[in-house]
């Protein structure tokens, strides 16, 4: 979604003709114009931008939000895929006091290397919601916060808590790495052309320090648990496919004699969280990012037992030790999952 395209000031007739006739916005690419000027003011206000901040803006469009950000921050780095919008930005700010405080990067934000920034303010295409969220959370050094407009359902998944209907793998993985809060709902009629769904603005603050956990292991566990989030963990971990997968990992690690300390070691310098969002994709043609259980790793539906398996007894013993056998993923907190992962690791069972 092209960010911050608001007609804040009444344009001249020539400017209006150029805007309407010279640039057509592609709905299929997530380009929508925010037409409510109060929304941009609210977003900028809630971002808590300081005069010393370097601001990353994604999808600046014609630059109305960009102008507001330049007025309150030190510098704006705008990443824009559409060359027409890049040209429009350059024309708009050329020869103004803002020109030396605006850096425009033409390219795909998911593919380009992002420079240092203090805060991110963005109104993004819905179809990049998940990969962009985790790319930002993997960025180093960590930024202070990001204030981003998402599709409302995706936003609600980000902030969902245990017991909520929308609580899913996306919720757990994001909240492991960041504090997420919902700022405001934005109706679809605030855009021209209106998208198919409502939107929400979310604030994301990276956790400092990060939890001392292997993120690939973490996601391996969360994938299994949320494959059937309303089943008991005892039922999930009795499935033949799950037991076979974990036993293969167990035997491989034993053969390689990898130490538990090495597997759990985590440093911010080498943070790789791309795995956390790699299966939470969306269908851009439908303007929706699922983020839920339908995209999770497939396992067998049946609770086929592996009779006489010492490994199965070991798995169930871990669940009983932590009193997890009758619990459901949809009700478990971050602390619960961290404790469960630690119990598995202590038993020599790993998920990556």
TrEMBL record:
<feature type="binding site">
    <location>
        <position position="34"/>
    </location>
    <ligand>
        <name>S-adenosyl-L-methionine</name>
    </ligand>
</feature>
<dbReference type="GO" id="GO:0000179">
    <property type="term" value="F:rRNA (adenine-N6,N6-)-dimethyltransferase activity"/>
</dbReference>
<feature type="domain" description="Ribosomal RNA adenine methylase transferase N-terminal">
    <location>
        <begin position="39"/>
        <end position="208"/>
    </location>
</feature>
<dbReference type="Pfam" id="PF00398">
    <property type="entry name" value="RrnaAD"/>
</dbReference>
<keyword id="KW-0694">RNA-binding</keyword>
<feature type="binding site">
    <location>
        <position position="32"/>
    </location>
    <ligand>
        <name>S-adenosyl-L-methionine</name>
    </ligand>
</feature>
<feature type="binding site">
    <location>
        <position position="80"/>
    </location>
    <ligand>
        <name>S-adenosyl-L-methionine</name>
    </ligand>
</feature>
<dbReference type="GO" id="GO:0003723">
    <property type="term" value="F:RNA binding"/>
</dbReference>
<protein>
    <recommendedName>
        <fullName>rRNA adenine N(6)-methyltransferase</fullName>
        <ecNumber>2.1.1.-</ecNumber>
    </recommendedName>
</protein>
<keyword id="KW-0949">S-adenosyl-L-methionine</keyword>
<feature type="binding site">
    <location>
        <position position="123"/>
    </location>
    <ligand>
        <name>S-adenosyl-L-methionine</name>
    </ligand>
</feature>
<dbReference type="GO" id="GO:0005730">
    <property type="term" value="C:nucleolus"/>
</dbReference>
<comment type="similarity">
    <text>Belongs to the class I-like SAM-binding methyltransferase superfamily. rRNA adenine N(6)-methyltransferase family.</text>
</comment>
<keyword id="KW-0489">Methyltransferase</keyword>
<feature type="binding site">
    <location>
        <position position="59"/>
    </location>
    <ligand>
        <name>S-adenosyl-L-methionine</name>
    </ligand>
</feature>
<feature type="binding site">
    <location>
        <position position="108"/>
    </location>
    <ligand>
        <name>S-adenosyl-L-methionine</name>
    </ligand>
</feature>
<dbReference type="InterPro" id="IPR011530">
    <property type="entry name" value="rRNA_adenine_dimethylase"/>
</dbReference>
<dbReference type="InterPro" id="IPR020596">
    <property type="entry name" value="rRNA_Ade_Mease_Trfase_CS"/>
</dbReference>
<dbReference type="InterPro" id="IPR020598">
    <property type="entry name" value="rRNA_Ade_methylase_Trfase_N"/>
</dbReference>
<keyword id="KW-0808">Transferase</keyword>
<keyword id="KW-0698">rRNA processing</keyword>
<dbReference type="InterPro" id="IPR029063">
    <property type="entry name" value="SAM-dependent_MTases_sf"/>
</dbReference>
<dbReference type="InterPro" id="IPR001737">
    <property type="entry name" value="KsgA/Erm"/>
</dbReference>
């Amino acid at each position: 979604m092209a960010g911050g395209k608001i007609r804040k000031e009444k344009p001249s007739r020539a400017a209006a003709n150029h805007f309407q006739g010279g640039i057509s916005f592609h709905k299929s690419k997530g380009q929508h114009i925010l037409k409510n000027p109060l929304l941009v003011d609210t977003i900028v206000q809630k971002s808590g931008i300081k005069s010393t901040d370097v601001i990353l803006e994604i999808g600046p469009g014609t630059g109305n939000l960009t102008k507001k950000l330049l007025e309150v921050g030190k510098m704006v780095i705008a990443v824009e895929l559409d060359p027409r919008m890049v040209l429009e930005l350059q024309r708009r700010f050329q020869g103004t006091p803002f020109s030396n405080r605006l850096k425009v990067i033409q390219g795909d934000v998911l593919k380009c290397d992002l420079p240092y920034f203090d805060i991110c303010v963005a109104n993004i295409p819905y179809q990049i919601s998940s990969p962009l969220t985790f790319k930002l959370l993997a960025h180093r050094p960590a930024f202070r916060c990001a204030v981003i407009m998402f599709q409302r359902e995706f936003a609600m998944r980000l902030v969902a808590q245990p017991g909520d209907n929308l609580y899913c793998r996306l919720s757990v993985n994001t909240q492991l790495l960041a504090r997420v809060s919902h700022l405001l709902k934005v109706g679809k009629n605030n855009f021209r052309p209106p998208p198919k769904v409502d939107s929400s603005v979310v604030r994301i603050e990276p956790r400092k320090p990060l939890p001392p956990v292997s993120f690939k292991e973490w996601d391996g566990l969360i994938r299994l648990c949320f494959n059937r989030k309303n089943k008991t963990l005892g039922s999930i971990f009795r499935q033949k496919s799950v037991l076979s997968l974990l036993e293969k990992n167990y035997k491989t690690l034993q053969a390689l004699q990898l130490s538990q300390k090495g597997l759990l070691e985590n440093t911010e310098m080498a943070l790789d969280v791309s795995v956390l969002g790699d299966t939470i994709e969306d269908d851009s043609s439908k303007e929706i990012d699922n983020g839920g259980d339908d995209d999770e790793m497939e396992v067998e539906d049946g609770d086929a037992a592996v009779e006489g398996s010492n490994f199965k007894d070991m798995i169930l013993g871990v669940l009983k030790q932590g009193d997890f056998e009758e619990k459901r993923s949809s009700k478990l907190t971050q602390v619960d999952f961290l404790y469960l992962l630690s119990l598995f690791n202590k038993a020599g069972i790993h998920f990556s």
